[in-house]
Amino acid sequence: MFREIKNRYIRYITIFVFFIIIFFCALQLNFLWLFGYSPRYEDIKKPAQQVGSELYTADGKLIGRYFKENRTPIDYNEIAPSIVNALVATEDIRFYKHSGIDIQAVGRAVVGMGKDGGASTITQQLAKNLYRTRYSKSSGLIKHVPIVRTMISKFKEWMTALKLESNYSKNDILALYLNTVSFGNNTYGIKTASRIYFDKDAKALNTTEAALLVGMLKGTSLYDPIKSPDRALDRRNTVLKQMNKYKYLSDDSLAMLSKQPLQIKEGKMKDGSNGDSYLRAAVDKYLEKWCEENGYDLYEDGLKIYTTIDSKLQGFAEEAVKDQMRILQRRFYSVWGNEDPWEDSERKKIDYPERAKKNLPIYGLLAKKYKNNTDSIDAYFNKKKKMTIFSYKGDRDTLFSTMDSIRYYGKIMNTGMMTMEPKTGKIKVWVGGIDHKFFKYDHVNQSKRQAGSTFKPFAYLAALESGMGPCDTFVDKPVKIAYQNKGKTEYWEPKNADWTNTYQEMSLRWAMGKSVNTVTAQVTEKVGWDNVVKWAHECGIESHLESVPSVSLGPNDVSVFEMVRAYGTFLNEGVRTEPILVEKITDQEDHILEEFTAKTKRVLSEEIAWLMLYMFRGGMDEPGGTSRALWEWDLWKKNNQIGGKTGTSSDYVDAWYMGITKDLVTGVWVGCDERSAHFRNGETGEGSRTALPIFGKFMEKVYRDPTSGYTYGPFPKSKVEITRNINCPTPVQEVDTVAVDSIAVDSLGNMAEDPILDETLPKQETEIQKKEEKKIPESLPVKQNSTPIVPLTKKQERELKRKAKQEEKEKKKTGGNQ
């Protein structure tokens, strides 16, 4: 009888164990989709924490992060012992004795019906946090049964805890747990929490700090030390008592530490690793396709992204931008005083704030709500409220209405700047604006503005491609160009800046260096404006370009990014190079996942590319060259050569400078985001006085730093035979009494080894700089710009009068027809 009872119990136990095994197998396999996802062996080996990616400069400086959960994992040896002691004493005192499931605690919880606390171990909590066992997508069809759903989740956590304990040491589990948990305020992991709440490393936390952070784990919102300091203090002292109870803290230490106040010191992750920036946003966009094709999530997969940005050059650029833009903003306010700067192309005042208000999405909602009652709508937009606004003295708190804000920001000048190394395609500098916090729009690749005279080189490129040379000449004279507009013949008559013509013969190099409108227009007519568009596209301009007679004067909208790419083609011996912003990507263990190289395509011959560089140098070498304002900076040492082009759109709305050195191409745009806001005249608003100084200040800083990697020097000599004449006789005018006229050049236009030039070159601002690029209305609906003509000598004035009399006689003979 006893044997039968014994055998029966054995059979029952065997059946029970069998069903338990079957149940857990079904649970693991998600049988009939009843139970949902359970972590597999591969998941245990590679815990799937949501780890943000890190953004670095080319020289290894951390400059940004991408994250959904602000977390940076660390190893166990980087965690202060006080953290571990506080955690074990508070959350799981038998942690070092169990194997993932604390049977004693489970029994105690069952007997006490949960009154004596829960039975969840640190390992189980890790399983729940790491694998999200209680999230809806981890649940199967059985999730619709409330009590059973909870039990299934608990069983999953037990299974996962056992797997974790069998694969990791206790210290590793603690580190994983502390890297996983949330500490509130979008702060995940002990490293980030230590920095955010105490501005120190996790290794440096003292006992009270450790107790505070561990105490927060019970409820990050309830025990937030910033928002609820009293509750946080009570909870901290509870943790200290637990540490005392389990002998991690003496009675005397408990008494002393419990009396200490909270000592929060809010900090930030080091090296600019939190917050947004133009560069961070640009890289996000740049890698969008790569992430999609390779199955990576920039915000969760813990990538290390090494950009091509040079931290030193980026710093120099940001300093130059900040310094110059502060000056320009003062100048802009000074020019307009209490007047509004918003005018149309005919200099008629417009109500920009009113227009901007009506373009806001909320305007339509308010119009509907108030049934187009303008008084009610205006009351909403004119209501004052607390607001933090941008200023060059730092963020400023003020009382502003929406209309106040529109007026204020409509007058703020902004900029975009990019520097590229054309040989490699590496972008070395990216400045998207004056402050990303207040101005999200990136003025390097998102913003497109009228190029002004910086587009003229494409006309001269088309001329070279058609067979002309730098010394071919055109006369600076009135021009009348016929064109077809909707089947009707119309005429365009471009004017020079001062409404006069010199009637001088000018070489292409001189005309481009001085940025003369009438000559550029004649060149464009001769080569065909379609060809100007064609060669601009070949060099790297991707934006749509209207093919019109004035195309060479820059009426089309382009980006700084495009212009730098296009100008880089000239420096790279005619090879167009696609700019790259990312050099390589690695995983957390520094294994390389991808390395990037620039795509290239030859679009110009080496001779044409070299001739274009020779033409660009005319801006510095030729009398009246628009780049001569660069003499103000320390850029002329050691045979240094610079090529460049200023540009200003009509009414001084957009100002540009494109600068070329032997290694780098830099593009700078300056203007207001609101296009109806502009400077009043060329004395303050043209490219040589707004954008050019940013380039000058930037390059001066680069050259003066011997560790920058970039040095003074001439452009590379031509590797091929130059078949076209480059010895252009250019008359030196009286206004050009500057030292550069004495620079010796060889037969190919390169500086000689010992130019008559030294470090004592006087800094000066010529009349050319002051008068450069004054704008006038054009007959076409397309805006354009020009560059001033150098004042005539007495001899030239007499010759001009003689020519005018001769032409008058000819007109009388022919009845006035020419």
Quick structural summary:
The protein is 40% helix and 11% strand. The chain has a five-stranded mixed β-sheet, with helices on one face.
pLDDT below 50 for ≥5 consecutive residues: which ranges?
A: 29-36, 133-138, 734-792, 810-818
Helix count? 30
Q: Kindly, what is the distance between the CA atoms of the first and last residues, rounded to a whole number of angstroms?
A: 136 Å
Mean pLDDT: 82
Q: Structural class given helices, strands, pairing? A: alpha+beta
Strand order in the largest sheet = 2-1-3-15-16
Whole-angstrom Rg? 36 Å
Helix content: 25-40%
Specify the overall morphology.
elongated
Strand percent estimate: 5-15%
- What's the total number of strands? 20
Q: What kind of sheet is the major sheet?
A: 5 strands, mixed
What features would you describe in this structure?
The longest helix has 28 residues, at 2-29. Residues 29-36, 133-138, 734-792 and 810-818 have low confidence and may be disordered. It is built from 30 helices and 20 strands. With 818 residues, it is an alpha+beta fold. Helix 19 crosses helix 22 (529-539).
